[in-house]
Amino acid sequence: MERDGDIIKGFNFSNSKFTYSDISHLHFDECRFTYSTLSDVVCSNTKFSNSDMNEVVLQYSITTQQQPSFIDTTLKNTLIRHKANLSGVI
């Protein structure tokens, strides 16, 4: 299944666990991920914008070909284990 830039806007994913999920090519806009864990997720070209990702653990899969992007997103006390594209983050 191939996705072409689906936008998920305004959802609250707080206290969620994403494990072995493929969230590639998704755009999360104005979403809340506070206290969530994303473990071994494939997130090639995934965008997080205008979102709250405080206290999040993000461990994306080594099969991720393009790093996720964080644009105007709050990342307070967030752990990201690999490189990521950051722009306007707090």
What is the topology?
Elements: E1 7-9, E2 17-19, E3 27-29, E4 37-41, E5 47-49, E6 57-60, E7 69-71, E8 79-80, E9 85-87
Parallel strand pairs: 1-3, 2-4, 3-5, 4-6, 5-7, 6-8, 7-9
Would you summarize the structure shown here?
Helices cover 0% and strands 32% of the residues.
Features:
single chain, 90 residues, Pectate Lyase C-like, 32% strand
CATH topology, by name, is Pectate Lyase C-like
Number of DSSP E strands: 9
Strand content: 25-35%
CATH architecture: 3 Solenoid
Major sheet strand order: 1-3-5-7-9
Q: How much is the average pLDDT?
A: 87
Sheet/helix structural class: mainly beta
Residue share in helices?
Answer: under 10%
What is the global morphology?
A: globular
Q: What order do the SSEs take from the amino end to the carboxyl end, as H and E?
A: EEEEEEEEE
CATH superfamily: E3 ubiquitin-protein ligase SopA
N-end to C-end Cα span? 34 Å
How many structural units, i.e. domains? 1
Number of helices: 0
Spans where pLDDT lies below 50 across 5 or more residues: none
The largest pleated sheet is described as:
5 strands, parallel
CATH class: Mainly Beta
Rg, Å, rounded? 12 Å
EC number: 6.3.2.-
Pfam families: Pentapeptide
Enzyme class: ligase
Protein name: E3 ubiquitin-protein ligase SopA
Can you offer a commentary on this structure?
With 90 residues, the chain is mainly beta. It has strands spanning 7-9, 17-19, 27-29, 37-41, 47-49, 57-60, 69-71, 79-80, 85-87. The chain has a single domain (7-87), classed as 3 Solenoid (Pectate Lyase C-like). A 5-stranded parallel sheet has the order 1-3-5-7-9, with no helix packed on it. Strands 2-4-6-8 form a 4-stranded parallel sheet, with no helix packed on it. The protein is globular. The mean pLDDT is 87. This is E3 ubiquitin-protein ligase SopA. Its EC number is 6.3.2.-. InterPro entries: 5peptide_repeat (IPR001646).
